[in-house]
Design brief:
Number of helices: 3
Strand content: under 5%
Distance between the termini: 74 Å
Strand order of the largest sheet: 1-2
Structural class: mainly alpha
Number of strands: 2
Helix content: over 70%
Number of domains: 1
């Protein structure tokens, strides 16, 4: 955990300064590709520290959070894309119905 006013890292049990800095970078990235690079760095850290049980367990926890975040982001994008597409279909349907009503009233005149 970083203390913003001083820039000093205060570690809590199970946290790792390097992985916390990756979280900070991860949250500032705007694309999934950039976030995947951060995820790869966390996996590299895990692999480099495979013999240290504490670092290994901490890195697995961070990786799990990164992956969960990416999955939720992907699902959210799919949801918003679906809502956008559904909204467009409904608008097109409403426009077609309006045009149909308008053209039939012209024929009846």
């Amino acid at each position: 955990m970083y203390v913003n006013t001083t820039g000093i890292w205060v570690g809590r049990p199970g946290t790792v300064e390097y992985l916390d800095s990756l979280v900070k970078d991860f949250l500032t990235k705007t694309t999934g590709d950039e976030q995947n690079i951060i995820l790869d760095r966390a996996r590299e850290f895990r692999d480099r520290n495979a013999t240290n049980d504490e670092l290994m367990m901490s890195s697995l926890y961070y990786i799990k959070i990164f992956v969960s975040f990416l999955i939720l982001l992907h699902l959210q994008l799919q949801y918003y894309n679906s809502v956008y597409i559904l909204g467009n279909i409904l608008l097109m349907s409403a426009n077609i119905n309006t045009i149909g009503l308008f053209s039939s009233s012209l024929h009846n005149s």
